[in-house]
UniProtKB/TrEMBL annotation:
This is Transposable element Tcb1 transposase. The gene is TCB1_129. Gene3D superfamilies: Ribonuclease H-like superfamily/Ribonuclease H (3.30.420.10). InterPro entries: RNaseH_sf, Transposase_Tc1-like. GO terms for molecular function: DNA binding. GO terms for biological process: DNA integration; DNA transposition. It comes from the Eukaryota.
Length: 216
């Protein structure tokens, strides 16, 4: 008779306590391993280490990961985007070749350690409970604007100041978009988002004076 190998160390938690850890982590996905350890000790008088919490949750497929940061969308946003997609779903390549898509991104110079973690299972990265809504940026930063069109693109425009309606008109429309409109003719369509500087009256007046058609 041979003896099976064993470390001799008994399991610290029971199956019920493992389930308690799993349920608690799913209810509050931002709880740290230390938080879960304290809650388990308070509920069952069982003391476990942080590493034990990691192992128990890992056995059921929950791992500490950074949450996805996203821009919050309302029901109206979703409805309008779906309607726009359906309206243009059958467009041919030659139709899209006349459309310029543009956008700007702000890169913050302020440090963001992103030390907040959540408990999530593989394949659930973009589930609603695993995302953090974020749309405001504080501190200094750089603004980068660019436009793309089928087979071509604009140069990247970098600024260290906040985008305003006057800057958008004088720099983006006059120095970049107007040139593409002149080269492509009346079929040219310009697509941009509804950020506040883009909706300024001086921007609309410039689009009309340059005969630039905005794609809705």
């Amino acid at each position: 008779m041979s003896r099976c190998y064993s470390t001799g160390r008994s399991r610290v938690t029971t199956p019920n306590e493992d389930r308690y850890l799993a349920v608690t982590a799913k209810r509050n996905r931002r709880s740290t391993a230390s938080d879960l350890s304290r809650q388990l000790s308070s509920a069952t008088d069982t003391t476990v280490s942080r590493q034990t919490v990691y192992r128990r949750l890992g056995h059921i497929g929950l791992y500490a990961r950074r949450p996805v940061r996203c821009v919050p969308l309302t029901a109206t946003h979703c409805r309008l985007r779906l309607a726009w997609s359906r309206e243009h779903a059958l467009w041919a390549p030659h139709q899209w070749s006349c459309v310029m898509f543009s956008d700007e991104s702000r890169f913050s110079l302020q440090s963001d350690s992103r030390r907040t973690f959540i408990w999530r299972a593989p394949g659930t990265r973009y589930h609603q409970e695993n995302t953090i809504e974020r749309h405001r940026y504080g501190g200094a930063g750089w603004l980068v604007w660019g436009g793309i069109i089928l087979g071509s693109r604009t140069d990247l425009h970098v600024r260290s100041v906040t985008m305003t309606g006057h800057i958008y008109r004088d720099v983006i429309l006059e120095q970049h978009v107007r040139l593409f409109r002149g080269a492509m003719g009346a079929e040219f369509l310009f697509m941009y988002d509804n950020a506040r500087p883009h909706r300024a009256n001086i921007v609309y007046e410039c689009l009309q004076s340059e005969d630039i058609t905005r794609m809705d």
